[in-house]
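for the writeup, i need someone to sanity check this before i put it in the appendix. the sequnce is what the collaborator sent (i think, or maybe the updated version? ugh). structure was predicted straight from it, no edits. if anything looks off just tell me and ill rerun, i have time this weekend
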Amino acid sequence: MNDNISGWNDWSSAFADWTDISISELHGLMTGIMTVCHAPDMAGWQALFSELSLSEPDESALTLLTEEAEDTSFQLKDKDDAYAYTPLVPDDEHDLYERVLALKNWSSGFMTGFGMTSSTLSSEENEMLADLSKIASIRINPDDEFDGGEEAYLHLYEFARMIPVSLATRQRKHVKELPLIAGLPLDAKTATEVAQEREQMREQERVNKPIPPVVDAMNSHRPS
């Protein structure tokens, strides 16, 4: 699958100015959540970004994420379509190092996203996630030769690709039910916004504070 079909180019362009985490890690994070949850709207993603201490992407990037999450959620809920799911990684025209790094980041993001759902796991599922965590912990430098080469990468990619397919069999819940944001309204203001509002109120109070009459002020310094 090339970069245009996979969406790699679209994501790279949309998130070009957002560098908190890589697009592969963000895609993995989104997938981990969509494995268990209904797709949230933009306000839901804004709440998640806030709780994860990530800066909010611009509107076009957030729109892309919201639409991709909805597509992924529907795809994973369909037993037939689920098998066509693909992690967001660059195509084989990119260096092997870049593809391995993207798969590593996707795996790390998925572990984080799925972990946020606090789902109960069977022993087999625990084993799958333990193996995925090994992919997430791969250490490789640009000058290193990846052990096993292309064949090993394709094996790891296929294994990672099937993880969300295997786990997406649960009863879906809403993002607002996740322990991370439970009890926090999806339209709740961030701590920064609350602090800014308080400062604005204090400033407004200083501006509106009544000025004592000139005569009274003068008399207050002239005791009778």
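The two ends are 92 Å apart (CA to CA). The first helix runs from residue 3 to 6.
thx in advance!!
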